[in-house]
Structures are given as C-alpha cells and as structure tokens.
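Work Package 3 committed the consortium to producing structural models of liganded targets before the mid-term review. Because experimental data for this complex are still outstanding, the team generated a predictive model from sequence and the ligand definition alone, so that downstream docking and mutagenesis planning could proceed in parallel. The input record is reproduced below exactly as it was submitted to the modelling pipeline, together with the SMILES string for magnesium ion.
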Amino acid sequence: MTATTVPKAPGLKLPVNLILGAVLVALVIGAAALSLLWTPHDYTAMNVRNKFAAPDATFWLGTDQLGRDLVSQLMVGARNSMAVALAAVLLGGSIGTALGLLAAAIGGWVEDLVMRIADIGFAFPALLFAIMLAAVFGPSLTNAVLAIAFINIPVFARVSRAAANQIWTREYVAAARAAGLNRFAISRDHILPNIAAPVIVQATIEFAVAILAEAALSYLGLGAQPPSPTWGRMLSEAQTLMYQAPQLAIYPGLCIVIAVMGFGLLGDGLRDVTDPRLVRER
Amino acid sequence: MGYFLLRRSVGFVLTLLAVSVVVFAVMNVLPGDPALTILGLDATEDALQALRDQLGLNDPLLIRYWSWITHALVGDFGVSHSFRVPVSDLIAERLPMTISLAVSGMIFTVILALILGIAAAANHRKAGDWGVMFVSQLGIAIPAFWLAMLLVLIFAVNLRWLPPGGFPGWSDPVAAMRALILPTVALALVQSSVLARVTRSSALEVMRQDYVRTARATGFSRQRVLWRHVLPNALVPIVTIVGMQFAALVTGTIVIENVFYLPGLGRLIFQSIANRDLPTVQALVMLFAAIVVTANFIVDLLYLVIDPRLKARA
Amino acid sequence: MILEVRNVTRRYRLPRRALLQPPPVLVAVENASLTLERGQTLGIVGESGSGKSTLARMVMAFEAPDEGTIRFDGKDLNRLSSGELRRLRQQFQMVFQDPYGSLDPRRTVGWSIAEPLRVLDAPDAAKRVDEALTQVGLRAADAAKYPHEFSGGQRQRIAIARAIVTRPALLVADEAVSALDVSVQAQILNLLMDLQDELGLAMLFISHDLAVVASICDHLMVMQHGKTLESGPAHSVLAAPSHAYTRSLLTAAGA
Amino acid sequence: MFELDRFSVAFDTATALREASLTISPGDRLGVVGESGSGKTMLALSLMGMAPDAAQVSGRLLIDGNDMASASESEWQRLRARKVAMIFQEPMSALNPLRRVGDTVADPLRIHLNMSNAQAEARALDLFREVGIPNPEARLRQFPHEMSGGQRQRVLIALALACDPALLIADEPTTALDANVKLRITHLLVRLAEQRGMALLFISHDLASVARATKDILVMYGGDIVERGPTQEVLKAPAHPYTRGLLGARPDPAPHQRGADGKRARLPTIPGTVPALHDLAPGCRFSGRCPIERPECATVRPAMRDLGHRSAACHALEVPA
Amino acid sequence: ETKLVVGLQQEPTSLDPTADATASIDGMLTQNVYESLTTVAPSGEVLPQLADSWTVSDDGLTYTFKLAQGVKYHDGTDFDSADVLFAFKRAMAEDSTNPSKSIFKPIASVEAPDAGTVVITLKNKDAFFLFNLAQGDASIVAEESVDGNATTPIGTGAFKYDSWTRGDRLTLVKNPDWRHAADVQVDKVEFRFIADAAAAAAALLSDEIDAYPGFPAPEMLPQFESDPRFSVNVGSTEGEVILAMNNSKPPFNNVEVRRAVSTAIDRDEIIEGAMYGVAVPIGSFYPPHGKAYVDLTAVYPHDAEKAKKMFEDAGVAGTTMTLRVPPFAYATRSAEIIQAELKEAGIDAKVENVEWGFWLDEVYKKQNYDMTIIAHTSPNDMGNFAKGPKYFYGYDDAKFNALWDNISTEADETKRNELLKEGQRYLTDQAVHAFLFQMPQISIIKTNVKGFWQSSPVLFQPLAGITVN
Ligand SMILES: Nc1ncnc2c1ncn2[C@@H]1O[C@H](COP(=O)(O)OP(=O)(O)OP(=O)(O)O)[C@@H](O)[C@H]1O
Ligand SMILES: Nc1ncnc2c1ncn2[C@@H]1O[C@H](COP(=O)(O)OP(=O)(O)OP(=O)(O)O)[C@@H](O)[C@H]1O
Ligand SMILES: [Mg+2]
Ligand SMILES: [Mg+2]
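The resulting structure, written out as tokens with the ligand in place, is given here.
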C-alpha cells in the first residue's frame, strides 16, 4: 500500500555544470597536490639569462622573468592560491554564516547588533586590516588569509541571515520547536542545511575574490612571501610584461579563471542536485 | 515607520562611532611614523620631533581621540597630516570622482544584470540560459585589474577610441563620460555578473508563482509578463544584493582608480594609509561606513517602495 | 483537565500610520477561554483571520499571551523556564496545515519523526519511529525516504507520526486536513480518531470546515474577529446554534 | 465549440491525462471532480494552452473548429482572456502582490481591447460591482494583501471576466475559503455564467460546491475520465465504484455522537492511495482499490460505456436503476 | 600655446620643498616655481640663480652673494636679501621641519648688509655648501607667502603655479615676468600623477602624455625603443641601491660575514633580473657618474663556492637571515634573486616584503632587521656611514668618521675627490653593505620634446630649457 509517487529515477543524469565543475576543480586540486610531491623543475631555480624562454621540451610553458619554470610555478601557485582562497572562504564563511544564523535565530537587538557589526566590517578597508596584521605578526600568507577571511565575514553574515530569516518562517521549523528543540539546535539541524544553496553560491563568488585579494595584498608585500608564488602575485608581477611576454599574465590568469569557474560550476551543480525543489521540477 | 527611522538613525550613529574607535586604535598600533614618512630618510631627529609636535602626535591617545571626535561632531575632520589641508576639502575634491565612478558602475551593473538575468530566466534551461550562466561565471572569474589592462590595451592603446585613464571633471560632460567608460566596465563587470545570477534565480523563483500563471492566462505576451510581473517581484532579493554591491563598488575603486589614475577616494585612502595620515584615514573610513550604512538603509526604504506588503512589517 | 486557557488576549502592534500617532493595535484573540479533557476533542471554527492559528500558537507556547494564562496539565506555560518548557513540549504536539511546508525537505522522514525523541535522548528511538509510522498507516521502510517522495496525504500522515511519536497528551491540529481532498481527508480523520482511542489523546482541532469538525469533535468553539462567539458540546452548538454567524456557516455547509 | 479528442498530456514520469475526449458548448456548466493528482488541473491548463513545457501533448484540441493542439504561444495569447479564461485555486497567491488590483483587472482591457486608461478603469469598476466587491471605487486602488481571501477571489473572477470569455475555467476556486464565502462565490459563478451565456468548467474536490454550481459532472481518476453525466443524477446514483467511494468519504455536517463504547463512528473511505501515475498499468487505474474488481480490470482498460444520457468506464458497471 | 604633459610616478602631499622630502616636489617645482641662490647643471657644476655671483673668503668660511635685481615673486612682492634671510632663519630654526636640516648645520650666521647682498658664515668648511644651496630644501621663500606654499606655492621661478587637482594633475604656467622669460618656450606644463607602471605605459602609448621622466619599469623599455614616437634615455641618478646589513647585530657585526655576502651576490644577475640590464653596477657607495668614482665592482667577484666557504668559516653556514624588503619593484625583485644566490652559498634568507610605513618604523627607526634593500637617493650621502650607531646601518667606525670629517671640510676639489676615493675603498674593504647598482634614471620622452636632462645629479629638472615641436 505504499505506492509512493516517487518519480522514475532520472537515471544517473548529473547536470553538465556539476561534471564540468568537478573536472576543473579536480584538475586544479590535483595539480596543487602533485606539486607537494613533484614539479617538473625546482620552482625556485632561477636562471636570469634564460628568462622569457619559449616553451620547449624542458620548459613546457617556457620560463618566467627570472628564468624559472612556468609550469612548476603555476603548480606551486595552485597550491598556495587554493590554500589562501579555501582557507579564507572557509574561515570567513563559517564565522560569517554562524553570525548570520545567530542573528536570525535570536532576532531583536542581537540581530541589529550583528548587522551593524557587519556594516563596520563592510566599511573597514581590508587593506588596513591586512597592514595591521602584518604589523603585529609580520607579513605572511597566514595573515593574508586572516585579512581576507575578515572581509568575508560580513558578506556571509548578510547572505545567511537573509536566507535564514526566510527558513525560520517555514512550518517545519515550528514543528521542530514543538519537538522541543532550542534555537541553536534548530539553526544547526534545519536552518543551516536549507540555506546551504545561497551560501554555497556566495562562497564560489568569494572564492574568486579571495584569490585576487591575495594578489592585491602580495603587491603591497602583505601576501605570500617570496619565493612562494601565488597566481595572484604572478599575475600582478606580469602586469608590466604585457607587451614583452604576455604569456606570463595569460597562464596564471587562465588558472584563476579555471579554478574560479570550476568551483562556481561545481557550486551550481551541487545546488541543482541537492535542492529537492529543483529535483522535483526536473 | 517612525520607530524604524529612529532605530536606524541610532544604529547609524553608533556604527560610525564604533568605526572611529576601531580605526583610531588600528592606526595607532600600526608601526609607522607619520612624521618620518613625510620628512623622509634624511630628516634629522629634531625636525621629526618638531613635526610630531605640530601634528599633535605627542599627545596621549585618548586626548587625541577626544579632540578628534568632538571636532568631527561639528563637521571638522581636522587637517590632513600629509596634505596639510582640511580633510573635508580633500574629500570634497575627490568625492565627485568616486561617486561618478560608483554610480556609473551601479547603473552599468544593474542594467546589464537585469537584461542578462531576465533573458536567462526567460530561456530557462535553453541555450540562452546556459550562455548567460557561463558568461557570468567567467565575469566573476576575471580579475578586475587584469580586465582593466586588457580594456586599456584594446580600446585606448590600439583602437584609440577612449582615453587610457584620467578624469577631466564634469565641466566637459562628453569627455567625462568617455573617461568613465573603461573604468566603469572594469569595475562593474564582476558585480554585474553576480547580479545577473541573482536576478536569474530570483526571477525563476517568481516565475513559479501563481500570479505569473494568472498573468499568462490573461493572454499577456511573455515579454510583458516578464517585465510587468516577474521583474518587480524579483526585485526584493536583487535590491538586497545591489545594496551590498554599492558598497563593494565604492571600495573596489581603490584598485580601479590606480589602474586608470583617477583622482578619487580609493586612491586617497590607499595613499593615506601608506602615509599614516590618521585624520584622513579616519574620515575616509567613516565616510565609507556611512555610505555602506546609508546604502543598506536606502535598500530597506526601497523594499517599502517596491513591496507594499512590507510597509506593514517595517 | 489537560488544557486550560483562561481569558487569553493577544494583541499585535501594527505599523504606525504617521510618525506621531500611536501605532494601531490589532486584537487577534480577545478574552478567549477553553478547557479540554484527556481523550476529548475540541473543534475551533471561524473565518479566515479570526484568530484560530494565533490561539493555537499560544497553546503551543510559540508566543505568549498579553493577558490571561494557559495551563497545561496544571502548569502555567509562561511561567516555566525554557528548559522546563522544552522538556514539557513532548507532551503537546502540533500538526500543521501545509503538508508540503511542515517537513524539512532535506531530511529523511525518519529523521524528522525522530526529532522530538532526540531532544529526549530516547534510547529506543528507532523502534518508536517504526511504531509511529505503522500507527499512521505507513511502513517502517518509509523512514529512509524524503518528503518529496510522498503524496500530500502521506505527508500529513508523516506529520502526524512526528506529532505522536513522543506519545503526547495533547495534539493541536491547525487545519490539518484542509489541503487534502475528500477521500484522503476521510482517511486522516479516521486516523486521528484511531489514535485518540489508542493513546487517549486530547485534540484541539482547528478548521474552517464545519462538516469536518462535526465528524470528529466533542466540543466546539466558534470564533470571529478574535472573539469567541459561542462554545459548548458539539452536538448542541451544531443542532441549536445561538449565533447568527454560526447559523450562516451551518446553512452554507449543509444544503 | 471546445472539443477534446483522445487528448493526452504526458510527462517523462507520468501520464497526467490519458486520451480524454470531451466537448464543451456555450451555456454548459461542467464540474470536474476527482482525487488529488487525477489530472484535473492538467485538463484545465490544456484548454488554456498552458500545459507545462515539459509535457508532451497528443490528440486533438479543437476550439471553434481550429486544432490548437500544436498552436504557437502567440496564437494562444490571442485566445486567452477572450475565448477562454481561468481563475486559479489559490486566491492568496494568484494576484501580483505589487500591483493594485484595479490595474490588474484593467490590464487585459487595455491590452486586448485597446481601451483607454479611463475606459479600462470604468470597466474594471463595473466588473468589481458585477462580482460583488463592496465599495468598489476604493477597492480598485488597493493591493491584494489589503483584501480578504473572498475579495481576492472576486478580483480574480473579475479579471477572468474582463474580456468576456466564452469559457470560464475555475480551478478549485473555493478550496481556501470558509463555508460562507465558498457558498457566495459558487453562487456568483453560476449567476454570471447564466447571465452571460458563458460556459463554465468548475473544478473542485468539494462535491457540495460542484453540486450547486454545475449541470453536468466529470469524474476523474488517475488521468482518466471515469464517469460523466448530469450532476444531480451522478451524485444521487453514482455508476463508477470510484465515484461511489468519493461520495461516501464526504463528511456531513450533522453532529456525530460517540458510540456506546465511547468511540465515534469512522468515516467511510476508499482503501489504499492514488496510484503513482508512472505505474502505467494497462488496465483500469482504480484496480487495486476497487471493491468490485474483476480479473480483467488489471489488464484491460475499460471503455466509456453509454448509459443513456450518462456514461462511465467500468467493466463491472451496474446500470443504475 | 605650447603645452607639455609630464607623467610622474609619485604625487606629493605638499608643495613646499622646504617642509617635505617627497622627491616629486623637487621634480616639479624646484628651480621652476621656486628658485634658490644657486642652481646646478646636469654635469653637477654649480651655477648662479638668485645669486648673480658670489665670492668665498680664503678660509672658505665666508660666502658673499650678490643677488639678482628686480626679481619679483609670483604674487607680485619684491625679492631681496630679507627674503634670503627669512628663508635661512626659518630652515635653521629650532622648530624647523626642514627635511634636510643637515644642509644648514655648518652655517654660523646669515647676514644681509644691504638689499642686494647676503653674507653667510660657516662654522667649518663645507665642500658641498654651494651645491646644497641649489636644492629644493634651500629654496628662497617669502615670508608673506610661506604659509600657503604647501598648497599654493609662490616663488620667483620661470613657471607659476596654476592648479592642483589632488590625485590627478598639477599645472604650471609660464611666468612672463621671469628674468629670462624669452628663453622659455613652453607655456603650460601639466604634471599627471600615474603611479602604476602599466598605466603609465598605456598613457604614453596612447599619446596622453609627452614625457615620463623616472619611468619605473625597465622591463617595458623594448616596447618604447621600437616605437619611433619615443626616445628612451637611460641616465644615472644619485640613487645607490644597496643590500644593507645590520652592522650592529650578529652575524653582520663580523666583517667576514659581510664580505661573504658581497661574494655571494652576482650583480650582473641582479641587474639583469631586477632591472632588465638597465643599471650600472657599483662596488661602493658612490655614483659612477661622479668625478671621484672608482670602480670597485671587482673587489668581491661573484663566487658561490667561495662565499659558502667563507660563511662556513665564520660559522654562520646554514643559518636563516631575514631580508625585509620595502614595496618597491627594484627592491622586491632584487630580493628574490639575492635570496636564490644566498641559498646557493648555503644561507637561507627569509624574504619578508613589508609595507613602507612598516619598513620605516621597524627597519629604519628601530633597526629591527638583518638585511634590507634600499636606494639612497640623496646626492653626496656617503656621510650616512658617519651617522653613528643609531643610524639604521648600525655602523660606527671611528676611522671612517674621521675620514668623512676630512671630506666634508675639504674645500679643494681635487683633494676632496682623492679623499672620496679613499672613502669608497674603505667602505668596500669593510663591506659595510653589499653595493648593488646605481639606480638608473629612465626617461621616456616623445621625440618632439627636447631638453630633458639625461642624467641628474639632483632631484629637480628645470623646465625652462625644454622645447616642444
Ligand atoms: N505576527 C503578527 N503580527 C501582526 N498581526 C498578526 C500576526 N499574526 C497574526 N496576525 C493577525 O491576527 C489575526 C488572526 O490571525 P490568525 O492567523 O490567528 O487567523 P486564523 O483564524 O488562523 O486565519 P486562517 O483561517 O486564515 O488561518 C489576523 O488578522 C492576522 O492578520
Ligand atoms: N511539471 C510536471 N512534471 C511531471 N509531472 C507533473 C508535472 N505537473 C503535473 N504533473 C503530474 O501530473 C499529474 C496530474 O496533475 P494535476 O495538477 O492535473 O492534478 P489535479 O487533479 O489538479 O490535483 P489537485 O487536486 O491536487 O490539484 C500529477 O500526478 C502530477 O504529479
Ligand atoms: Mg490559520
Ligand atoms: Mg489541481
């Protein structure tokens, strides 16, 4: 008697964006992971006299302005940029989302307070914060991550609060209250999973922002310290080489685009397969 | 509504106050001596000391903060340490640039995003939709300064259609608008891509609503339904994001103003932080905070305009 | 007496019309009183906006009345600490109107049903979920499925299973069958009656459909604009309504 | 004037309407009843040319003799509102919350009938009066959230009537309303249909409303039309076992006392639940729940059998007395 | 009307060269808007300016200047010896914030016997006195207008200040009343502040600006060299780029360690990698274009193996040293290469790119560093090494202090040059720092613009001699 109205399983038809996104992300993460074990050359090995070398059998993509192997630099750059972006987004995202959830859960003056703090975070130049961290703890990639995470907090706080407020009006939340759950348990069990979609979308956007923010901080000496490359730093260093060696800007730029698009598509795809409403619609 | 206004105004003042305390504290724990930055490596110690006295840097922190905040309350933001002119003059000089840029960026963002987002929603799961989703994903991924360089290379250096940078001021509106085109695109493309996606998903959400079906049943064309019924209802989430984006555009000017050598606030705050010009940094951060809070406030008011139902909840 | 609502009033402050005027106040529920014994069903009928759901929310202690008291099993709900209230909540549960909105789409049905048990740390949670599912006419295996895999009627059964899994003394059903079609509605009503017989449930049954109320309620309360128009044993109210509104409802439903 | 001929609406995962044949002529008032998911809404949407994009439509749909089954969206746009109009189930959400209701009603008048703003507004006012909205002048300028459910439903009716359609489809127009309002709306629809000589397709699972509103009735189950005939006759003496089950399940407003054992009488129900529409059993959809099931029911789809001026699709049909 | 548009990297925050060290103030205004008693030719030769002529007493301590006649400030007030008196008193005062107060240190007194004469008496001989007087720090400003100079500079020069749009541009117009106004061809000069090198290149390539002296990106030169619209000049500046070591702290208080560092570095590689070959290596602290220059670049030839051994002998092999680098392209790029070179010699250098304010505070003020890279842009600044242990070099050497005393008081040029050579040799021998290269002055100038100095012994660039076709 349990003839449920399960629609015929749509096979294993995963959305294109999910597959494409997963492939791109795997590519980037793979390269980053591989760089821990192996790179075609020592990424710090320079040979100034062989700068801007054209691609050949030894240097697959040629060399950079100091004669270092571009492939190796890009691989190690993948590792560093991924670390920055993922860490910053995870950190800022989780704090921000937690704040947003808290604001929505408690409401009233707490919500006001959290949102005003978020305003302050919005208004406060990340640059100033990065300089402060560098000044107090010395410049490092970690501090760059912290600074970027910091600018992410208010963004996620806003997005998650808005989404959470909507979910709080749903009847299943009232049902959970009736079940005796307190606000924190409800936030954890019901609100968080159901605001995942907008939060994930925001995370993919912030992911791109983080990679580029690191570049901007590196430019001021507040990001990754030499000799570790990041894509952002490679890109900003290649700015003035646009006319002479455009490939030095194109490759890291392409890497950034690939990584960001990969995570973006993956995020879209994940939302498409996890949102039951979209599943139903299909 | 009155209560709402009151609560927001109190929030506004408290926010600015908190910002001022934080900036003041941060600027003071930062290593870096404004006097040394101004006078350079060859300055003698007594010259430095004299300048510090002049700038009031030798007073205790609290006294400096108190004097600053009491003056700020009456609209006097002090004299810039490095430029030696009233900070308010500095800001007044540069504000038009940044506002022009941010506003044109906002206009560009909104128009492009609405067109693309609605077009994508209208062609849900068709080529147009995929196209917009792909292009917007790309738009998010392209670094702003990188895009800026590319635009300059193509449109200023090679084609010579537009100037590579600089801002002639509004006395010559045509020149001013031409000068704004490239920076606007570089500044706003990312935001526009983000907004296009928000527009699309929020339009799709609205298109599932019953009243859209009613409108179609009334025999209206797709276009009419989209612009008359879907868009206005999709605006609430769009406006939320737009409010955040305005703040992002204002802060985004830091990079863009450098690449296009535009005389705006972004570059000013960058310089002032480097110069440890406390009064200027302080005033600018307060200004940014005010802009952010005001933008959010305007968004809240816009909700009321957009959605008559919300008037009941304010 | 399991539930006693005494002289309860609930006002909502509406937005100010002008800056200097005091905000208008909407009295959603005015001076409402009711009592409910174990194993009995009280029906509340009334037009849309008459304050039925507001009353239900107050009984569920989701919001507090501005005046009056609500006692559950002798305890004043609004005097309890939040911990005590949470522990007491297993004793009174609610079934909502919307069979689609009242289940978290991202959780399996079993998870949702077990939710009140987790709060209690009940050791035999899995067993009780199976039991509850069987009681509402579903299978234990259905626990692993997601809400969107069920029909509206089945979801309402799931919602009821969640409400009875803690073996509550009181069930508040706010328009629990309004969204269902006739044959499913009949099944659910029968189910509620079965449960009442089996568990000795008291029920607060909210509806705007007199026919439905008539088939299940012992007592009846008619509301309009927040006021209680009349109340009493169901058969006497239905047979001899004292208020014109009740009469009009009856004529509309009959005929 | 409207004719469906072996018309089907199918999705990848379900057949929502299976080879339905049906005609609607001017002045008809036809009720459609059936369990949730039986295809009532899909039938209505098909007549509006608004079946979901995902649906595959087959068969013929003739409107004034033109086959519209494969008509383009713009051809349909010309017909909607003027030839056929629809009011939807949920009055709370079927109105654009951001438009004043007067504008919503005036829109089709301006667009389809090229009325000026003033003309359209005057006409909207007339319509508001006609559907019985109190104080219509002021109501024109209100937003949906400022009106009660019954009033909103009237606005929707006014909107549907605006361009004087030949057929008005009402898809569960009263489900969300309380008994008084339900009654009034039902009477209003009947009155309007009679005054205007308009055909009415009244969809509901509330049998009492259908009984009041319609001359003929169509019973649907699992995508099939299982019975049709004059409303009063069908309700009095249902031919199809499903129709009988449906009628039996309806609660009646007389007070039910508890029995001697302290228990109350259960309502009669149809055992089992609606089959999933993707279980494309070749036979009768009702088989498995049917109290009078025969061996062939599971394998052979019963044809519509003519019973004088009514018909039903059942192998075990007892010709009513 | 002839208009010249000049791109500049740095925008000053004030327009008063006597109160602010920013080089671009001098680049725009010194000897253009403001004038000093003397001026300097590209060769470094001192020429008359507001002083028509001067005499020096035999003991080298008393200078008598005859002032130019009929000179007016841009605001119409007259120039005379009282202004000179005022300008010097102001710069020398206790509370003066003059960034180069050391210029005025040797002065015992300044007197004005009459309106056209100024007599300056020194406490001790100063070989650079007349040269120093040409600097912006010694500009002759008027008491009436001095307070406004930070924003509206008033001087006596060939160009008048017109307007300043902060963040964007500063405009000067020709002063028709200047003494030699007939020789000035340009009517209007617009300085545009374009900090970003790529933006500057774009502005040049799209004809937005006519000249960019001090172009910061040597890597972009090929683009301009191949373009017939531009001429690229690479000259010298007074900027010695050094890898500074903290002599007050181990391990760099050990001369052998410092020598090892000098041996470890490969100047050619650094110049190729950081400056794209556009720089002249230096072996000591003196510009190669100077008269007293000795080439000491061969004293510590690059030899990684030897350096490694030297580090081992000194017992520092395998240690980590921090290299704190300010945010200038020449420094950060050099740092990366030096890091690699030190690694080859067995030293792990931890590069820390720091922000400028941080550098000033931590490195310069607090001497909190092991190594850093910095360009010293002031002329005649070998005296830095005699500034004692508090200066960020942490270098205190009685022998050099005595030597510098001699140099700075020796009025005879030949003798002074000999002493300067000795100083160079001594600093190299002590390997106080690793001396890298002389900062080039790269100017990219439209071919139709003539008259920009190829090299510059000073920070200013007179615009009076520039022509635009
Ligand atoms: N949070 C609130 N703020 C302001 N007014 C409210 C609030 N909640 C309910 N109301 C108002 O209180 C009145 C009673 O609402 P309630 O939901 O109890 O009605 P109801 O009888 O359940 O109606 P329905 O049959 O439509 O569910 C309504 O006028 C409603 O608009
Ligand atoms: N977009 C769709 N994709 C797949 N199946 C659909 C879609 N829309 C409707 N259906 C299916 O078509 C069947 C008929 O739906 P329809 O809406 O006509 O039912 P109904 O009789 O109006 O039910 P109710 O009384 O609940 O309104 C349902 O089983 C439904 O699941
Ligand atoms: Mg309710
Ligand atoms: Mg339906």
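Reviewers should note the following from the model. Chain B touches chain A through 48 residues (CB under 8 Å). These observations will guide the Year 2 experiments.
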